[in-house]
Amino acid sequence: MASTMTVQxxxxxxxxxxxDSYSHDLQLYQNVPFGNITLEELQxxxxxxxxxxxLVERIHLQKLTMSVSQRRVALVxxxxxxxxxxxxxxxxxSGCKSLTYMDIRARxxxxxxxxxxxxxxxxxxxxxxxxxxxxxxLFKWRFSSLNNEGIRQFMCINNFDFTLIxxxxxxxxxxxxxxxxxxxxxxxxxxxxRVPFFYIxxxxxxxxxxxxxxxxxxxxxxxxxxxxxxxxxxLLSSFGVAREARANLYNxxxxxxxxxxxxxxxxxQSTVLVQEQEIQQYISLDQLDKLAETSYxxxxxxxxxxxxxxxxxxHGGRVQYCLFLKGMGLSLSDTITFWKDEFTKIMDDTAFxxxxxxxxxxxxxxxxxxxxxxxxxxxxxxSTIGPRDYHGCPFKRMLHDILExxxxxxxxxxxxxxxxxxxxxxxxxxxxCNKYYEIKHDCFDDNLFKHPNIYFNExxxxxxxxxxxxxxxxxxxxxxxxxxxxxxxxxxLKIQKQEMRINHQNQNI
Length: 509
Prior knowledge:
Helix content is 63%, strand content 5%. The strands form two sheets. Strands 3-4-6-5 form a four-stranded antiparallel sheet. It has three domains: 4-146 and 228-265, Transcription Elongation Factor S-II, Chain A (Up-down Bundle), CATH 1.20.930; 154-224, no CATH class; 280-454, no CATH class. Strand 5 (210-212) and strand 6 form a beta hairpin. The protein is mainly alpha-helical.
């Protein structure tokens, strides 16, 4: 018989009737789930949710130019391909049209899997951050599928007291609404909700709403932002309780085994600093030009090339490239020497001192002495780029003719350039970078890179393994030649001994 668990509710629910507890397809996960579930089903639904969250991350990186709704559609299509139909239906739901047994079962499994994974990642900062980002994105995508009735019921179920303003109120503040809502073209046919200002700090910061007497007047198309912000706040504050819940199960081997399995299931790159000694031996100042040609991702190759040509980079480029060099494993002293050699070609040593401080700061030797990590691909994609800047993602920021010239400089032929350019034009920047890697290394790799230093590490492993193979082949050939030479020498000696023996016998006769 399968093992079962009972989840107790630490707070009083209005009803133990599942139909009342799970009356909507979208949840804020504020109440702890209750009831019985087998350990096998618990592990299965958590694995499924991790697959969903991994797809959310992948689609987010691949479809940066798509709207939220388009990303949701892409996610649903992928889930159907993988046979995860139950979650696909939840994600594509317009609200709460039905309360069948299958509906309630899907909502309950959604609820339990979220809570279990929340406790799984609670003690690991990197995995917690990853879980937080993907869950927030998933919530936002799911909210985009709700219709007006679904949104109204969601607010009612979760006690959101956001009221629509009347037509008279709208007339009185029409001018203010028009000025403060740049995305609203027709104020008359747009509904505005009255929302306490503390719910929408970011909207206020971006000057997208009108504020009066502590209340914001939010257009209906911006309401998703209100609920996503609220969900993030709930999720962020819940990790303390999640840690406590996991700690309370520490002595239960059934749960510790599942927690350990699920935690290992989440593959997060917590650090990208080079650890492998066989890679480290190839990284030195005099090798940077060669490495930029063979193993740098295009974003870092462009920065290195610009630095060598202009002997200068703007602040964003300096930080992005300096962190990358740190991630490669270049020492602080070598990094300072590298930048000094370039910068002092157009400035004196005194002017370089300020840049030297920045380098030491990045390496954690000045200021707050934090261990700054190299930028991820997502961070680079979201960089603000000016006209004199070379940083950021070239597949996103470069004009197409300039990008094509850059690819030509890399040695790519017309067909290869066309394949990369098409992905870039379609907004599939990560896929374009992946195609760049495949062509550079004459291999196939369907794993999208999430970090420039991971790209570099994989490139070095690929090239050093090929190099080792070539050395092995040379040694094998040399050994074979030596064997042949030794064999011939031995054979010749044996023949000579045989001839001497025959001559000796003839002399005796």
